Known about the structure:
Largest sheet: 4 strands, antiparallel
Shape: elongated
Mean pLDDT: 74
Number of helices: 11
Amino acid sequence: MNTTPRRALLPARLRTPGRWAVLPAAVLAGAVLGGGYGALKTPQYAATSYVIVVPAEKSDPAAALGFAQAYGRVATDIAVTGDAQVWAGVTADTLRRSVQAATSPDAPMISITAQAEKPAKAVSMADGVARALVLNSSHVAGSTGVKVVQFSRATKPTTPVSPSAPLSALVGGCAGGLLGGLALLVRPKRAASRGEARHSRQAPATPATPAATAPAAGSASVPAPAPAAHQPEAV
């Protein structure tokens, strides 16, 4: 029957009750930092405009899909070289950083999504890039055999797409709990070696066994000298 206490089966690093205070402290710190970030960060709004690539007369309809992929990859470059930054009222760096274009693998359609601090600015940037693609395609339609047309204009967003303060606090608390748990499981080897050395110093010395004190087998025993007999002195 195993009489080992259950506490002895746990690792030494898990038997220290004070170390478990790190986990709730890490969760609380992460929640506070995440909530503060979500409350102080300026909300971002996103607006999406759609354009479609159509083949010209006597052109291969399958070419429209390939040109849609090509226009989607260079959408921001075409917008910067065109008048999109003038129509949107932003710089070229802001346009490259805030606008993303996505294409569909089975339809010659391009979605242009812009993010900004104000809903109206997001709409103007998305529509500006779409308008730049339409003008650029009309200039090279004779050589490409396709053109880009406006499919749907961007609508003014009503809710931000950036995470709210409660959601940021939840994410921060989860991240803090994860880091706190890792800190509990991972300890420096130096601290562990110090604990083992302290434990070995406090352990009592092992008494010598009787076999160690017994004379070795085969060794000759020397008899003790007999006491000298007392003789009276001669007068």
